[in-house]
Amino acid sequence: MSKVYIALQDNDESRYIVEAIEEDNSEATVIHMPAMIRIEAENFLAVKRETVEEKMGRDWDVQELHVNLITLGGNVDEDDDQLTLTWNE
Amino acid sequence: MAAKKLNIKDKYRLLTRDLDWEFSYQDRNKAFPFEEFEGIKITDWSKWEDPFRLTMDAYWKYQAEKERKLYAIFDAFAQNNGQLNISDPRYVNALKIFLTGVSPLEYQAFQGFAHTGRQFGGVGARVACQMQSIDELRHVQTQVHAMSHYNKFFDGLQDWSHMHDRVWYLSVPKSFFNDARAAGPFEFMVAIGFSFEYVLTNLLFVPFMSGAAYNGDMATVTFGFSAQSDEARHMTLGLEVIKFLLEQHEDNVPIVQRWIDKWFWRGTRLLTIVSMMMDYMLPNKVMSWKEAWEVYFEEAGGALFKDLARYGIRMPKYADIIEKEKEHVSHQAWWTFYTHGHAAGFHTWIPTDEELDWLSEKYPDTFDKYYRPRWELAKEMEAKGERFYTKALPQLCTTCQIPMLFTEMDDPTQISYRDSIYKGDRYHFCSDGCKDIFDDEPEKFVQSWLPVHQIFQGNCGGPDVEDILRDYYQMNVGVDNMDIKGSPDEERWKKWKGVA
């Protein structure tokens, strides 16, 4: 098993995104570091538009993620509804 | 009826497929002259896919938003005298290395991706390279803007571009990028897009930038993370390039593997300077170099290579040596700069007792045994008024251009030397990795512009080191260089803080 990960700037918008990720990926681990939040999970992680919108209380475009994104690891796939990270075993 | 809003897959397809054209009366090979000479075989460019499916309109929209956020913070930092809130004036010396050593690489990356993008026959790859090229230009600009504020208050930041072209230790990053840019377009992508971006920039832009935040440097952490948000896209491009090349033709596999071996080794050597920035130049510590290496190289890189194993790609050559080096390189590098501190464009120092204890704790197997005794000796000498500066110029590795400071990993008291004879001349290397790279491309590396050789040949002025520093490097001798103790930087800091 390998870890996929995503790191976001620690700010007000990311807080909701992290909440959404935690809700949709029950196995994910959230690590707080100075100025950043790193979330990692075994093999798969999804950031879902619908959940983020619910947490933020407004429309949210998956591509808005770029504004607060610091880094990620894993094969990326993005469409209008979600961004996923995977490793193929 | 209103037009249906396109989804991002359709938008991306329209941008990257329908904008291209067939060559009806011109020879396609003449339009893309560099596409074949490296031996890479592309059978179908349409298989290229950007997983973010970013189109130009979205690109400009989000990049503009990033810039607005970034410059608001720069303004706030400058207006509130943010330089006074950093943890310790020693910290600024890491920024001096960043501005002279790293920011010019962003500019080289801008040039490299502009050139490489032009050379690809596939439109998806061209668009991705164009975006990355513009990103890299943004990075050098934002870094210069961020650090221009420090330049008003600290020494050593005034002539970074000139220094990058001439100063001995800066030939390490400069020649690294020159090597990549002088390669073909596919090697450039494996070198910079994949090896450098996917694994190595994370080590600089994530834990080091988190460290900048922890040391009160709002401006740097903000440009760092803003740049790194582009890097997430670059990393993904790098991974897509590799997968694309490996899926296009099985003959590409050994070529790509050779480039991975070369560029992971080159990148590991280049990061030596970041290792000492992490362990020695951040007064408030976030994590040790070794810990950062384990997360971003071993764990992240390990996952990556497990994923690529299905194509027949293995871990980079000398991964076993690289694993051992994480215990040693930061200590060996900082000691080298400390002893050559008269010839550096930034200040050096002996770690405080508290910092020495931290290093002992973080490196239980090596620090007390090999490195702490040196610092205890340096402290004794300094107390007697005999702060040590070496008189000699170091021998450099022909490939990575780093002074011969690395040891054998089986015996950390023995400096590692290798050599090769080519056309009757002997060339020197710091490692098997660097020797292999030379032996594979000797005609390229015999042309290395080695700063120490150039000094001895009389091409850098002189004759004394001080003349070279002042006239050829354009350093302010006695101001930019030497120990932080007694430096103008330290004097000013004490005055601002009202301490004697």
From TrEMBL, chain A:
Highest taxon above the source species: Bacteria
Positions in coiled-coil regions: none
Pfam families xref list: MmoB_DmpM (PF02406)
Family: Belongs to the TmoD/XamoD family.
Protein name: Phenol hydroxylase P2 protein
TrEMBL record, chain B:
InterPro entries for the chain: Ferritin-like_SF, Phenol_Hydrox, RNR-like, YHS_dom
YHS domain ranges (all copies): 410-449
Domain of life: Bacteria
Molecular-function annotations in GO: monooxygenase activity
Oxidoreductase recorded as keyword: yes
Annotated Pfam families: Phenol_Hydrox, YHS
Gene3D superfamilies: Ribonucleotide Reductase, subunit A (1.10.620.20)
Keyword terms: Monooxygenase, Oxidoreductase
Protein name: Dimethylsulfoxide oxygenase, delta subunit
